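ligand=S-adenosyl-L-homocysteine
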Amino acid sequence: MTSISDTLPHRTQPLARVNLMGLSRAQMEQFFLDLGEKKFRAQQVLKWIHHAGVTRIEEMSNLGKLLREKLLEVAEVRPPEIASQQDSSDGTRKWGIRVDGGGLVEMVLIPAGNRATLCVSSQVGCSLDCTFCSTGKQGFQRDLSAAEIIGQLWLAIKSYDAFQSGKGRVVTNVVMMGMGEPLLNFENVVAAMDLMLEDLAYGLSKRRVTLSTSGVVPAIDRLAKISEVSLAVSLHAPNDELRNQLVPINRKYPIAMLLESCRNYMAAQSDKNRVVTVEYTLIAGINDQCDHARELVDLLRDFPCKINLIPFNPFPQSNYRRPSGNAVSRFWQVLVDAGYIVTVRSTRGDDIDAACGQLVGQVVDRTGRSGRYRAANDAQIITTG
Ligand code: SAH
Ligand code: SF4
């Protein structure tokens, strides 16, 4: 006689449990409603995970025994794992984060005065191929899940043992400027940023969470409708001809389109005094001349922005060079004389390779790009060596 279990499809793997770590408030509420539970359970669980730093469902004492047992069957709270940790002499800390499927991403915490900024990754590698970026050279493996993105903030706080410890905030600002293009992983990044702003989770102000993009215009337009985080745009060139070379996505979404989309993003914000941060990586002899600065002045006239200059950070597979301090000052001066607010990003964590563009992790490249770069690099070493 055939039993009912014989007629069921053979299950080789247990059903995946929902990782509650990455659910935004709205998603968590829906999760509990779907379970036949009350919405307020979401608030309790959010607080356990993101205020108290608790991952063991058994310890969530105010849920009641029956609900805890039910949850243990269908859910889990699982942050990614820390694979390595390095501390710089200037206080910068860099972690290697192990994610499902064997990849490794990097995350950096940069203390400065009474602020501490966490630089978070959104993808394992990057599918875009900006010529000056080591992440781009590694190719692309996959998007990070929302749990893996918010899990980085969770891990940083845990690593200082600062959940409900009265130690104050160890992370005051978050920038989506680690590995990957956040707007190409839209849903997961938005869910993670929602948790960063959510009072039941991290409660950061919208001004202190910044998304940096190389210019995925349709996604900026989409973001404008649902998010209030600060926007940073990686411009790096004052005209399309040069930007096409440095930031290939410019061929699809040229500068005029990008600036228009940023304007619309700002116009959609309730607070009209906010501005876009324009990031400009200065590369010696490529985009760092006074003429480039003057062209930039003209381009950004009437555009509500501040400008952040980033002297190029070298890495092994690149022939680009960092400009001299004088060249950076001259460029800066042209912009300041024209009335712009301009900051120069100081290089932090030099001794542990923690600066912008130096985050590499480990990418199981699915694009073949990393192999091509290695081959080109080897050929160059042979011809020049
Ligand atoms: N993909 C997003 C965010 C990650 S890159 C973006 O491109 O905006 C974060 C910032 O570091 C970007 O402004 C990027 O252009 C810059 N960057 C990348 N490589 C760099 C390098 N080698 N030196 C200096 N800045 C770099
Ligand atoms: Fe990707 Fe940003 Fe690097 Fe460009 S600069 S390759 S978009 S991570």
